[in-house]
Write a structure and sequence with these properties.
By secondary structure, the chain is α/β, with parallel strands linked by helices. 39% of the residues lie in helices and 13% in strands. It has a single domain (4-187), classed as Flavodoxin domain (Rossmann fold), CATH 3.40.50.360.
């Protein structure tokens, strides 16, 4: 794969969101074969199951962007010790109708920043629970509960020196995680290239080692 497309979902609509800045700065730590695109979630209607058969254009757009991505990056704020409503709404839309979720099997990373010392830890844990149910393989370590304080970003919006080493290591682990999960399995590769070997057929009795063992056992 020449290019890994990563859909970045920012769980905040605030104009000067720390997490939007963090998402942009983290993208600059990624390798050249990764491209990061922040998807829009602020224009989605509130999820209503009655609309499953005829979703809004904004819902169709988001779902198509998630389907086209090889990986996901969630950068979320924390409201009242949980995920922001706008993020949960986006997750619900992309997971529906039932059995047609676009999230399934997309490797993901989760991080977030807050002025609080525990840095969105509760929101991240709740988000991980949701992603686990949706069959989204999510990077477990290292966790990144980022305290948004002076020096987190430099004057150009990049990660500041005090946090750069840790967040670069986080990005390196995330990149490896995405590549490991986005790579097709051997069976999928063979099917794609039409090189499935012919079946050798059933083994004859003489070729089945467990039957040989049974014969030896019977005769002591």
């Amino acid at each position: 794969m020449d290019q890994y497309k990563i859909a970045v979902v920012v769980g905040s609509l605030r104009r000067d969101s720390f997490n939007r800045k963090l998402a942009s700065a983290m993208a600059r730590l990624g390798p050249l074969d990764f491209s990061f695109k922040q998807v829009q979630i602020g224009d989605l209607p509130l999820y209503n199951q009655d609309d499953d058969a005829n979703p809004a254009e904004s819902v169709k757009r988001l779902k198509a962007e998630i389907k086209a991505a090889q990986g996901l990056l969630f950068v979320t704020a924390e409201y009242n010790r949980s995920v922001p409503g706008v993020l949960k709404n986006a997750i619900d839309h992309v997971s529906r109708p039932y059995g047609q979720s676009a999230w399934t099997d997309k490797p993901a990373g989760v991080l977030g920043a807050s002025v609080g010392a525990i840095g969105t830890s509760m929101a991240q844990q709740h988000l991980r629970n949701i992603l686990a149910y949706l069959d989204v393989p999510t990077l477990g370590q290292p966790e990144a509960f980022i305290h948004a304080k002076e020096g987190l970003f430099d004057a150009d919006g990049n990660i500041g020196e005090g946090s750069k080493k840790f967040l670069q290591s986080w990005m390196d682990r995330y990149v490896a995680w995405v590549k490991a999960h986005a790579a097709p399995s051997t069976l999928e590769w063979l099917l794609q290239h039409h090189e499935m070997a012919p079946s050798p057929g059933p083994l004859k009795s003489a070729d089945q080692p467990w039957k040989k063992s049974a014969v030896v056992a019977e005769h002591g």
